[in-house]
Amino acid sequence: MTATTRTLASGPGWHVADVICTAGTGDRPFEEAHRDFCIAAVTSGTFRYRTRQGTAMLAPGALLLGNSGTCYECGHEHGSGDRCLSFHFKPAYMERIVAGVPGARTLPFETPRLPPLAALASLLAEAEAARETADTDAFEELSLRIAGAAVTAASGTAPVMHAPSRRDQKRVAEAVQRIELDADSPVSLSALADETATSPYHFLRIFRQVAGMTPYQFLLRTRLHRAAVRLRLSDDAISAIAFDAGFNDLSTFNRRFRRVMGETPGDYRARRSSSIDMGAPRRRQAQSVVGPHQPGR
User: Helices 200-211 and 166-181 sit at what angle, rounded to 10 degrees?
Assistant: First the structure.
């Protein structure tokens, strides 16, 4: 077997896998089949992809597009090995995504791949970083964003952003309140969407419009803010603060805290302690200037 597949995250109707292929120029391609709709981001290596939509050479930054139930072949005539972040969607789930993309109302994909596009570069880098840091909680949103971007690019439609309605603003406000109440627990994008009676893709889109960030980004900022406040107000162990805030491991908390706050939790707390120590001599000095109380004349 020349390919290994490791599931990174999954949910109802979708999953994402890290696929590493070691096939070389001497290996003959064999026919496989897409069980679901597939959008695979190539992160290293090159290979030839042949399917009903056509044949294409894929290189890092490109997106492989596969339709549910269709056969395909991958060949390595010009080089050995490749690695992909492979996003898979059940037909019903994919149809809901397409229905939420303005101007794109049909399936299946008509092209076998999307070339490396500037519009997708930042998003694909975010997905690869999530893989490398084992940020599994980020993949539900990333899968929707990548699917929506792929559908938009493949259909040739320009993104159309309508101002959010009052109803959508109310939905986002309710979701924000829900995240704030349960920030220390896992919060599913699909569950938030179900509570607002919208599809996950539509909910993600309106949340970003109204709140200026995704639900997962808002959840992380809420957790980090609460942890920072507790670091300033208490002497509790940093690990306890991280776990109580909703982070599953200390290394993830340290990495995210440093990225947002610009310093490690330990340095952040030490700076608080040093500011308290610096203030103490001034208070003692102020008391000595006043001197003991003298009775009035």
Answer: 90
